[in-house]
Amino acid sequence: MAEGGDSGEKSEAPSQKRLKESSDKGDVLQSKELGVALVMIVGAGWLALGGPLLVQALAELLRGSLSFGRSAIDDFEPGQAILARMGAIAVPVFLLFGATIAAAVGTPALLGAFGFRWGAIAFKGDRINPLSGIKRIFGMQGIVELSKALAKIVVMGAIGWWLLSSRMAKITTMGRGDIASSMIAVGHDFVYAVIVMAMGLVLIAGVDVPVQMIRRTARLRMSKQEVKEEHKQSEGSPELKGAIRRRQMETARRSARTQVAEASVVLTNPTHFAVALRYRPGQDPAPIVVARGRGATADAIRALAEEFDVPMLRYPQLARAIYFTTRSGQIIREDLYIAVATVLAFVFNIDRAMAEGRSQPEIDVPGEVRFDENGEPE
């Protein structure tokens, strides 16, 4: 009973398959606070770099609009005049729009959630369900969102109070100077305030992003039973794997039937590899690999060898050496000639050897062609 109860507990980390499926449905890692912070930083950077350009363009616009000569009256072209005046303003404004759009798009890219997903705009009944809405408001999600809102109020309020208190004396005496210098000072103070507030939002985003990661991971956690079911679906049931293996064997048998039928001997691993060799004295210059395979292909070669009464001998190192160094239709390596010749001599006289009670001969495979089952040198 305890085992059945544990299977329903979400105690396992989400698998890559579950993460991908949730991402395809629109459930991705996202942080509104990070997006707002990036947009604020980009806006502050634009104010610091492009703000003076915009102020200068506005001054030129005002100056050009309030001054005109006789030619402006004689050749009055309002459209051309508007384009000429607005063109200077368009450049910094478009830079601002482009930078903020890039920041908004860059937020999901930083979180690894960049891209359009149709599942995100699909109809979901819980979005219009009043009970689900109440649960979101008064549940854990509502508490987290309320906490973030209060944190923003506290942080931004503290920053605002610090900015005002540190510059109160300067603000109260600003009216005693000339308007131009006062406006420049106000602009600098405004840019500084925006940058500091953007840093405050970055601080909040630095807390919000890990919280969102933890919440998403917790939301997607799996029970032990779900992990088992997913593994079963990924790997396939034993019945399905058996059917696939049978189909692979049938395919391999059809393709290797003619080659194995003319083989002189089949060398096995004994289960993972199989190599079929042919040597016809006077016709073949050296032993030739007519078929080779591992797994289902090896099974098919062994089955065909039994069907055509081709001798099968167990030589694991020699079978792997030929498999990893020679392809089908090629002559074996020269450094394997002695070992293969010893095997073929036994095969060609196998009836007499069996009658005399002799077992298959021992052979020596050169060290440079000794491999393990993964093809790594031994």
Quickly describe the structure.
Residues 224-234 have a biased composition (Basic and acidic residues). With 378 residues, the chain is mainly alpha-helical.
Topology:
Layout (H helix, E strand, L loop, with lengths): L1 H5 L9 H9 L7 H18 L1 H16 L3 H5 L3 H33 L19 H9 L1 H33 L6 H41 L4 H12 L2 H24 L3 E4 L4 E6 L9 E7 L1 H12 L4 E3 L1 H10 L11 H12 L1 H6 L23
Parallel strand pairs: 1-4
Antiparallel strand pairs: 1-2, 2-3
Rg, nearest Å:
39 Å
Alpha-beta content class: mainly alpha
Cα-to-Cα separation, first versus last residue: 49 Å
Mean pLDDT: 76
Helix content: 55-70%
Main sheet? 4 strands, mixed
Strand order of the largest sheet: 3-2-1-4
| Coarse shape | elongated
Q: Which residues form runs of ≥5 with pLDDT under 50?
A: 1-6
By DSSP, the count of extended strands is 4
Number of domains: 2
Q: What is the count of DSSP helices, taking H or I runs of 4+ residues?
A: 15
Q: Strand fraction band? A: 5-15%
N-to-C series of helices and strands: HHHHHHHHHHHEEEHEHHH
Write up this protein.
Helices cover 65% and strands 5% of the residues. With 378 residues, the protein is mostly helical. A hairpin with a 4-residue loop joins β1 (265-268) and β2 (273-278). α3 crosses α6 (78-110) and α11 packs across α12 (296-307). The relative contact order is 0.09.
List keywords for this structure.
378 residues, mainly alpha, name from scop, 2 domains, 15 helices, elongated
